[in-house]
Amino acid sequence: MDTLRQARGTLVLRVPGIAKPRSSEDAVVALLKKGNAWFARLQVEGGNVLARIAQENGVTRSHVARVVWLGLLAPKLQESLAWGRHPRVTARMLLAMVPLPDAWSEQEAALAKVG
Fold first, then answer.
1. Which of 22, 5, 12, 4 is nearest to 91 (CA)?
2. CA atoms within 13 Å, Cβ hemisphere of 56
3. CA 92, 68, 47: angle at the middle one, nearest 5?
4. Are 70 and 94 in contact, with CB atoms under 8 Å apart?
5. In 95-107, which positions are buried (b, 16+ CB within 10 angstroms) versus exposed (e)?
6. Number of helices (H) and strands (E), helices first, in the chain?
7. I want to staple 19 with a disulfide (CB 3.0 to 4.6 A). Which of 7, 10, 73, 84 is the partner?
8. Cα gap 75→26, rounded to integer Å
9. CB under 8 Å to 4, separation ≥6 — which residues?
10. What is the pTM (predicted TM-score) of this model?
């Protein structure tokens, strides 16, 4: 049964089976944003950028390299994660999937295994 309610001056329609998008502050969404941004920088600035990104963000070069892999995650999977269709998947689980398979279908299978 669909639900229609008023929430803080906004009309909200809840439909069973439709996922709720994750908050932009969500760790998974933040990690995907970083992955895409850092991957874009790598494409523009080249290999030495990983050390600069690490220094700028106070993390290790190894962490940056793992996060950059998420910039190669299939767009369909990035969207489904952002929309909360895999609510059990955490940022830590995503990083554990690195290095990602090249084929998007294999990425989808890997994501299905973790959540």
1. 22
2. 10
3. 145
4. yes
5. eebeebeeeeeeb
6. 6, 2
7. 84
8. 18
9. 11, 12, 13, 14
10. 0.76
